[in-house]
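Per your request, structure below.
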């Protein structure tokens, strides 16, 4: 039956079910556990205060809780120390921070390397950096399975490569990228490596030691945490190469009218009041995730994913994009416009994503105007898939 023992930890699931809604859009954002909601309310009910500034008790409590999340993140990811963790306002902001923070290292004709499957968040900051500096954006092609083509990468990554920025798990194709073989190609050339873990970290690959990258980015709201918080891990030696990018309160050690001296990471990259409640609630979310049997959770997700692929493959005219390995599947149906199909699914209460999933260039390469994406969270179960596929069959009866 593929039931999820964690479903009841997410109160929204019962509410959505009562409304006849089936949530299969967790790759866009995940529903939230009660532990997060309690922490968020607890923070506001017990007194809000700014962090790292005042000495009063409420401020000290807020600062301790805020820094507690940084410590948990460092442990969770296997960072060397909490000060390798910068808290941002989202994964997108973290990637923009990098593209601005590394700008001074990029010269005319240098190369910034991304892959053809990047989310706009890990494409446009590098594209714009290349334009600002007269550098070249090099795009690694994919093989037929939807993974970065390693032999092409070996040809394209070279002595002018300054940064390699790639996703861990594609938000469109659901393919794990061969980072263990790809990243060393860039490191061997002295380039910095950036991994966009916004999807990958949710589905069990959060071990920085195994990844061996210089920077790693994740998005709290996809990891069952609150919105408005992102995480940038940086190896200490890589963080030291970043220039400050946003300026304001608490990131500065000494300020005069004409000059200023800034803090190093992490505080030097956290200008202004951070999303305090969200960061504290992310800490509670991590505590919640720590309580669960991680291998049971991954087996559950894998079983659901296998079923998702079987059901899609069993339907005539359905074409999967790539060969999804985890968490999601994007597909088109021959002779059917994805927007029409999405409309009929949504009318039947199936929450799916349709369109180009913030990866327009990839869709252009695939020669596809758009696709439907079904994505899974740890709270989904076999009933969700039954409802989705009943709805899909009814929709296809109308459309074909
Ligand atoms: C692979 C990937 N990278 C980056 C992002 C951007 O995350 P956020 O919108 O939380 O900043 C997303 C969001 O969909 C994503 O899927």
């Amino acid at each position: 039956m593929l039931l999820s023992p964690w479903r009841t930890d997410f109160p929204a699931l019962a509410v959505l079910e009562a409304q006849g809604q089936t949530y299969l859009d967790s790759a866009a954002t995940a529903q939230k556990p009660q532990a997060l909601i309690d922490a968020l309310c607890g923070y506001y009910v017990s007194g809000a205060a700014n962090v790292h500034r005042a000495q009063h008790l409420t401020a000290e409590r807020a600062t301790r809780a805020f820094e507690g999340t940084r410590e948990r993140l460092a442990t969770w990811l296997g960072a060397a120390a909490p000060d390798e963790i910068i808290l941002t306002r989202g994964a997108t902001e973290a990637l923009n921070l990098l593209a601005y923070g590394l700008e001074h290292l990029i010269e005319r004709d240098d190369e910034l390397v991304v892959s053809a499957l990047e989310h706009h968040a890990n494409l446009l900051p590098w594209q714009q950096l290349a334009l600002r500096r007269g550098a070249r954006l090099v795009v690694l092609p994919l093989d037929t399975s939807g993974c970065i083509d390693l032999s092409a990468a070996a040809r394209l990554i070279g002595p002018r490569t300054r940064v390699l920025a790639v996703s861990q798990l594609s938000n469109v194709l659901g393919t794990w990228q061969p980072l263990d073989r790809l990243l060393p190609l860039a490191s061997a050339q002295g380039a910095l490596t950036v991994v966009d873990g916004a999807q990958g970290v949710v589905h069990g690959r959060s071990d920085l030691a195994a990844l061996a990258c210089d920077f790693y980015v994740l998005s709290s709201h996809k990891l069952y945490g609150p919105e408005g918080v992102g995480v940038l891990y940086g190896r200490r030696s890589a963080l030291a190469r970043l220039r400050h990018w946003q300026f304001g309160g608490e990131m500065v050690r000494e300020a005069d009218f004409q000059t200023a001296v800034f803090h190093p990471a992490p505080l030097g990259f956290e200008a202004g009041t951070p999303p305090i409640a969200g960061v504290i609630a992310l800490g509670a979310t991590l505590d919640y995730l720590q309580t669960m049997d991680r291998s049971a959770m991954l087996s559950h997700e894998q079983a659901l994913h296998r079923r998702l692929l079987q059901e899609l493959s069993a339907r005539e005219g359905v074409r999967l994009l790539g060969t999804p390995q985890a968490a999601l599947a994007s597909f088109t149906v021959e002779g059917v416009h994805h927007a029409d199909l999405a409309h009929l699914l949504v009318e039947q209460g199936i929450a799916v994503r349709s369109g180009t999933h913030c990866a327009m260039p990839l869709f252009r390469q695939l020669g596809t105007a758009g696709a439907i994406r079904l994505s899974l969270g740890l709270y989904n179960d076999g009933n969700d898939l039954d409802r989705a596929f009943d709805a899909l069959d009814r929709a296809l009866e109308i459309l074909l």
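The chain has two domains: 7-24+294-399, 37-290.

Regards,
D.
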